[in-house]
Amino acid sequence: MNHSFLQSTLRELQVFLHSRRFWGTFAAIVLIFALTGPYGTMESMAFGERLTYWLSLHALAWTIAILCAVAAEKLLREMIASMFTRMMTGSLAAALPIGFAVGLVHYAFTGETTTLESGLQRALFSVPLCALFCLLTYMAMSEKIADAAAPEESNPGASILDRLKPENRGPLLRLSVRDHYTEVVTSRGRELVLLRFADALKETAATSGLRVHRSYWVADAHVEGIKRDNGRLTILTRDGTEIPVSRSYAEDVRRRFT
Hints:
By secondary structure, the protein is of the alpha+beta class. The protein is built from 9 helices and 8 strands. It has a 5-stranded antiparallel β-sheet. A 3-stranded antiparallel β-sheet has the order 6-7-8, covered by helices on one side.
């Protein structure tokens, strides 16, 4: 496990630690459980004990869910392109340890031991809650998590090609944004790189090209021509790909390629 991996993981965990919305949601849920006393805790525990019980239970469960989601988001990047799918995979996997962790909290407060069967039942009950946790977390914090996961700003003079696998290194053709990644296309292949698009553009200095859209950059040598359709410009590349041109870049594209 390399140093940059650890740094990136810690930055993602800090997103949760520094999020007021996250802690506000956590506090509200704990308070709701303490006030309503579900699962018989209203009858068996006084308010102070009940609050401590639900605070301990949720703190442990949320910690496990966060650790599993962040770990999966990091470790599954080579296999799963979607950040949401990676986080959901980790969150669902967290249901099993959460089921037995809840049993430990319950034992500490009630003395009731957890069997294999009861632990698995709690884990099964936790599955939809873990899925909901992941969904809400992704909707509220996905951009911040992606920013934290991305490498820090590139070094001056660095080349985007150096980030690619050796077999994919060739003349640079185009870049595009793909779900918090930058897709790099060369004459030898394509690859997703975890790098902010703005930083990726800084690493194209060795190749003459132009940003034509908020999500696209294309090398000059890769442009076959441009076409206009209902007032909208599109770049035609030498491999047949059509790249949209946004209005803010349209004048630069016309000057350069016509």
